[in-house]
Model the fold of this input.
Amino acid sequence: MNISDLTGRMLFVMDFSAIVNIKSQGVWERLTEQIIANKMQVFVSKEFYENYEVIIKSLNEDQKKIAKMAYSFLEKLKKNQLLVTKSDILDNTEIIEMLYLNPNVCFVYYCDSEFAENVLRKAKKPRCKAIVVDSNGDAIVCDSDEIFGATRRSIDASVIGDGYFKTGFEAKEGKQVKTSDGQVVTLKSFIASGGEGAVYECDYRENYVVKIYNDGQLNKLRMRKLVQMEKKQVKYDGVCWPEKVVLSPEGMIIGFLMKKVSGKNLSEVFDGSENLLREFPGWKKYDLVDFTIKLLQKIQYLHLLGIIVGDLRFKNIIIDSKGDPCLVDLDSCQIRGLPCPSGFPDFTDPDLHGIELMRILRSYSNEDYSCAVVVFKILFCGIHPYDQRNGAETIEEEMRDKRFPYPRNSVGSFERIPLLGGYSSMWKNTPDQMQEFFYDIFKNGTRYSVLELILMLKTYKKFLEKEKHRIPSINEILFD
Amino acid sequence: MSIYENLTAGDFGSSTKKRLPICFCLDASGSMEAPTSSGKTRMEELNEAFEKFIRTMKENYEVSSSADISIITFGGQPHISKGFGPISDYSFSSIKAVHRSFTPLGEAIQVALELFDVRKKAYKDKGIKYFQPWLVVITDGEPEGEEALENMNAAIARTIDLERNNKLVVFNIGIGSDANFALLKRLSEKRAEPIKVEETNLDELFSFLSASSRVVINSGDMNAIYSSEELAKPEEFDISAWNPYSES
Done:
């Protein structure tokens, strides 16, 4: 099918991921001309505007430009009364369920997006049409029977296994490596090392460092991922992306260049209120909420590009001295059909506990769970939502059984809430709406998308701004 | 008065981390006053290495906020020289050998197991998650004193039972050649041989202990210390036959 085949009174349901990943402005313009010329309608959800706010902070000019075009396009539609919005519909799952059987509807989305995942999950035997932006950024126009083929994502089985490549490269100060476009980079002083590799200062550009994998750590998965990551134009403040592959003098991939990050990981800072206040004296709940929103926006940026962080946990998030977040260790992320093989149970969706992570692709829903844990842990100064008195042997069991110890609307027993650290008071001073929200996530098992989390936290932030003088305790962090 | 009375759970601090309770049972009997080849006594060697260990453990935030330690010395009587508490709050003070005293090893281990019990109950009650405890036994001799052997056998039976049920990790360590390794060996079924260490090389022992605690705390898996030693070496690929740039 072609774009010109989409005629009649079509309703386009536009997901922001399509706009971010489309290759050229030309493709976008052709589509928009078609829509306006035929007076077709476009539906966007409230999420569209939230996503706009996320992408406009991108440091990639192309992404910003396309997003701006999309925005002005919507303004134009609005003027022509072709834009449909419904403020009561928040997430795209609902929209998909409502419209996938309608032949006059066309979904527009990126093939690796959360929207795509929901189409696969919710739209059984669709009768609608779709424009799917593929991994090359081309827009593929699909009739209803072609939708699944263009959307389905599968694991790249050729990279699975324990084998590794011998690099024969021993990293040390003064050694030279090169980028894939031939620029020579000299390793400067050693910064740090871990089980995977070592990080060095280098002369690539100001504020860049180079990570060289240890011999024996380079496997097929890692290598192919590095290539994919270089291709993705991820440029965002607070996202420490493996931007460029580096090669040994013999031309073998051995590591990558990334921006230098300084600060402490969240695990060191968010470890009880006393410790947090030692690191950031004067911080209030408001600051925690604000920090969390900033963090989630960075994760959402990656999601819009089809990237799942995967090993999302406190150790992989840095907080700098100004109190801003930064995502690090992203070389393990899930991109295209390449899985994220690492994870830490406390932050991992219990559906994935006990599963070999190397052999599966994670879903956005899995990541939504991790995000919810991160949000709770930040707002409650480091305590895990399932930490509790007289609990099971392991946190995995509590997570599986959804034994959330905090009572909804503060009605019910506080007996299982951890005794030391003031968590009962912290919970009592959490507004009802937030309590409901956490209760729904950790007790009922409801999943909220990252955007829904952001929207909820923005409401929380406004509430604190408005009420903190009247009820100072809601803004406090430290309780006895 | 029995040492088993007045056992307290100790301090907990305000960290949210999963705790690793470690109890050191350290030999403070007369034999620890023996001079070593370096000119110091065994006790002086132990103190130096132990102090360095505490310092190293405190350097890493994850470890210092997770590790809870207690120290029981045995020379004449078992003595709780430090009750449980976060290692971050502990300032090292040196341990003294008790002149010409016996070695109540089994009794000391039994006190340690009681301390673990009290501590674990308190963790549960307070809602603090924890790793199964580590029992670190360091001796240069063998059990001595009234009913020493009976008490040692009782201690062995209890540690083995706990270890079988994954409720305890045992480090059975003998200093020098006079330690009774046959008896130490019986303290653990999971460790193939007791750990043997030279009296002038105690640093190495404590580096091993702090590295092991890092592995467990960072991986979240108490069995990581056993499995890390026996990982099979994966197959090596030929890079010339494979193209990372091709999409499959």
Summary: Chain B touches chain A through 26 residues (CB under 8 Å). Helices of chain B lie at 42-59, 61-66, 105-126, 148-164, 181-185, 202-219, 224-227. Residues 105-126 of chain B form the longest helix (22 residues). Confidence is low (pLDDT under 50) at residues 227-231 of chain B.
